[in-house]
Amino acid sequence: MQRGISVKKHSYRQLAVILIITGMLLSNIIYAPGAKASATEDDELRYLKSVMDMIKEKYNGEVTDKQLIEGALKGMFGSMDPYTAYFTSEQADSFFNDLNGAYEGIGISMEQKGDYIVVIKAFSSSPAEKAGILPGDRIVSADGKNLISASTEEAASMIMGKSGTKVSLGILRSNGDEVIIIEVTRAQITINPVTYEIKDGVGYIRLDVFNSNAYEFMIKALEEMDRSSITKIILDLRNNPGGEVGQAVSIARMFVPQGLITRLDFKSESVEDEEYFSYLENPKYKLAVLVNGMSASASEILAGAVQDTDAGTLIGAKTFGKAKVQNILPILTPEAYIKYESQLGIRQVDAYDLISKYGISPADSEIIGWTKITTGIYTTPKGRMIDGIGLTPEIQIGDPDIINGIDAGSIQKLSITSKPTLDSVGMDVYNAEKILKIIGYDVDSADTILDMKTFNAVWKFRVDRGLYPGGVLDFSTQKALNSELDLKILEIDRQYAKAVEVLNSK
């Protein structure tokens, strides 16, 4: 997926359809002065206007012209491939937040559990952490508005907001029924998609998504590898859905030898195709790349470059197979369309074309929404087009099994910074419960709360490992649980285990 920072125009036929719809719905001005429509266009226009008239005559409800226009746009863009869609301005903001890896809010990840929105993590140094929000907290209100039975999207829309503004959250903590009110000042939050660790002389780097921060945080991970003289790297792209082409290319340049990384071929003849190259003369890392059926798009650009240039070994399952490239383009409102048609004598709905061709930057109020539209395809260095095909790893191994309902890859190491005890709440409790569950101890679903059942499971684990009896997650217990997690991952994550074996054999 590529952000629409450069202009990628619609084909003429697609543009004509959009102009027909917007012109029909918002005004009696059908064509620019002097323009002539073919019979087919005229028939289509009259048909669509008849549908509009029927809606206004027969629909027993309230509907605005803007709603009808957006419905038409959603229908058109939704009729193409699965990757093309229309976004309202609000949906576009959310999309850009994800792609940019930054947003204005309080810095938590949350999920819906039953009727409650539950905090899974308060990011380090975030406003939420500073205000005392804890993993496991149930958010029941935001600024007095009820969030019980709300979706995560509804909750996010109430909790997020401009930096410097405040939001008052109603919190239920642990098993209590008293609502605690915590006021949090929103700030700019940066999302780090990279996690890493060094174990037994092998560096492990997991990249969750190619957002705008991926390259920056990948540099930090590799700097740590270099400081520790690590040359064997496992790059985990499993379940990475893609992101920005530019980020994938920048990261590929850290691993792929000098030469072509990928080629982008755009449909529009007015847009130049693009080639991206690596300039790395002497790659310094021995590389194993983990992929699976959910490794897609930008992940496949990187993995395909590694495979075609023999920069490393692909291990895992066949990738998703998405070689289509999207751009994000702003769509003018009908009023703005008519305005610029009158001023410039052009018929244009793509606001980026106004910027690039005429030096005009439309106001935010002149953008009705955005489209994420497929504009081209990419190929690998050897010219392979993998859309619908995917990349086949050199070493094919199935995905790790789910043990007792737990994906071991989702477990984070215990931090060894505090000693949770009975009724404590936190991420260390959450991950300890997951570890205990996959190694066979009797605990309920991981919920961040160290209840009596978890306390007893910790007690039994400590006795079984020859540690001093007790149900507290002290540092010795956390270290022992981390070691158990390492062993279990080698046992059940055969893709990871094979990567270690391959790198150690070189």
Keywords:
19 strands; 506 residues; Pdz3 Domain; disordered N terminus; globular; alpha+beta; Muramoyl-pentapeptide Carboxypeptidase, domain 1
Question: What does the model show?
Answer:
The protein is α+β, with helices and mostly antiparallel strands and 506 residues long. Among the domains are: 104-190, PDZ domain (Pdz3 Domain, Roll), CATH 2.30.42.10; 194-324 and 378-396, Alpha-Beta Complex (2-enoyl-CoA Hydratase, Chain A, domain 1), CATH 3.90.226; 408-500, Orthogonal Bundle (Muramoyl-pentapeptide Carboxypeptidase, domain 1). The protein contains 15 helices and 19 strands. It has helices at 12-26, 39-58, 65-77, 89-100, 127-131, 152-159, 214-227, 245-252, 298-308, 334-344, 351-358, 427-438, 452-464, 475-492, 494-504; strands at 85-88, 102-105, 108-113, 116-122, 138-142, 145-146, 166-172, 180-185, 187-190, 194-199, 202-207, 232-236, 259-266, 274-278, 286-291, 313-316, 324-332, 367-379, 395-396. The strands form 4 sheets. Strands 3, 4, 5, 6, 7 and 8 form a 6-stranded antiparallel β-sheet that branches. Strands 10-11-12-15-16-19 form a 6-stranded mixed β-sheet, with helices on both faces. Strand 10 (194-199) and strand 11 (202-207) form a beta hairpin. Helix 8 runs parallel beside helix 9 (298-308) and helix 12 packs across helix 14. The chain is globular. The two termini are 34 Å apart. Residues 1-37 have low confidence and may be disordered.
